[in-house]
């Protein structure tokens, strides 16, 4: 595991975007695993800026996202497809037919998960997976538990995650209670993993996840076993790490 220290959020975003852009330049037809949430927004903005300057070409890139809320369609402004379209897909020349997320409108959880597992297999797996880090150590919607779930699965969101996502909805009652998410095995099968972390409120979980014991109680701790992980974090997030 490689730790890259950034000065602040903007510096973290640029450093992370450098790694993603290098992947696209070196392998134009790569498969990028993408994440949502507030932390990657600056990274996507930097990629868009470089695309607008003519430095990047996404025309042959395939994307697979970590997760999607169950019950939300792509047009819902709180769906993760909408988020990705708002921050990246609509701003670069990616082929929208090659941007994949779990189907949040599929009510049959087993079918939705099996379909998404097949998509990831069909595109040849993930070359570089971007991850954020939840306050409780979740990656994707893989919440703390007793096991590491292997493949795409439907999860009941914890109260902590529901409250964290409340700020995006009109009220807490509108926050979905379930989501489809890539499993830990799928994430770990990515050839490279990039984790972005920002803020003093993440300092405790950074230390626990990346320097503590490997346990499903802290799902991100499993990343310690991956052969090619880069963590890009700002000074505040690394404040408890020497």
Describe this structure in words.
The structure is a single chain. By secondary structure, the protein is an alpha/beta fold. The chain has one domain: 3-Layer(aba) Sandwich (Rossmann fold). It contains seven helices and ten strands. The strands form two sheets. The protein has a seven-stranded parallel sheet. Helix 1 (9-26) crosses helix 2 (41-52). The chain is globular. The relative contact order is 0.18. The model has no long low-confidence stretch (mean pLDDT 95).
CATH-scheme architecture = 3-Layer(aba) Sandwich
Strand content: 15-25%
Number of helical runs?
A: 7
Oligomerization status of the protein chains: single chain
List the helices and strands and how they pair.
Blueprint: E1 2-6, H1 9-26, E2 31-34, H2 41-52, E3 62-65, E4 67-69, H3 80-87, E5 99-100, H4 109-122, E6 128-131, E7 153-156, H5 159-165, E8 178-181, H6 184-188, E9 192-197, H7 203-211, E10 229-234
Parallel strand pairs: 1-10, 2-3, 2-6, 3-5, 6-9, 9-10
Antiparallel strand pairs: 4-8, 7-8
Helix pairs in contact: 1-2
In short:
By secondary structure, the protein is an alpha/beta fold.
Q: What keyword list fits this structure?
A:
alpha/beta; seven-stranded parallel beta sheet; 7 helices; 10 strands
């Amino acid at each position: 595991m490689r730790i890259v220290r950034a000065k602040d959020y903007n510096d973290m975003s640029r450093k992370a975007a450098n790694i993603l852009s290098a992947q696209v330049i070196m392998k134009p037809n790569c498969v990028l695993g993408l994440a949502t949430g507030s932390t990657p927004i600056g990274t996507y903005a930097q990629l868009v800026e470089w695309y607008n300057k003519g430095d990047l070409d996404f025309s042959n890139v395939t994307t697979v996202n970590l997760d999607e809320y169950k019950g939300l369609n792509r047009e819902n402004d709180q769906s993760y497809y909408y988020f990705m379209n708002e921050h990246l897909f609509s701003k670069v020349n990616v082929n929208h037919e090659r941007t994949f997320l779990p189907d949040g409108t599929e009510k049959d959880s087993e079918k939705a998960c099996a379909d998404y597992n097949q998509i990831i297999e069909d595109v040849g797996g993930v070359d570089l997976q971007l991850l954020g880090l939840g306050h409780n150590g979740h990656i994707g919607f893989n919440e703390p538990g007793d096991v590491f779930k292997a493949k795409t699965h439907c999860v009941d969101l914890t109260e902590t995650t529901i409250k964290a996502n409340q700020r995006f909805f009109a009220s807490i009652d509108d926050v979905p209670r379930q989501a489809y998410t890539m499993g830990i095995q799928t994430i770990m099968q990515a050839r490279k993993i990039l984790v972005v972390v920002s803020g003093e409120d993440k300092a405790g979980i950074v230390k626990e996840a990346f320097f503590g014991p490997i346990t499903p109680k802290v799902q991100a701790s499993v990343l310690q076993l991956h052969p090619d992980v880069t963590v890009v974090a700002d000074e505040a997030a690394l404040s408890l790490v020497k």
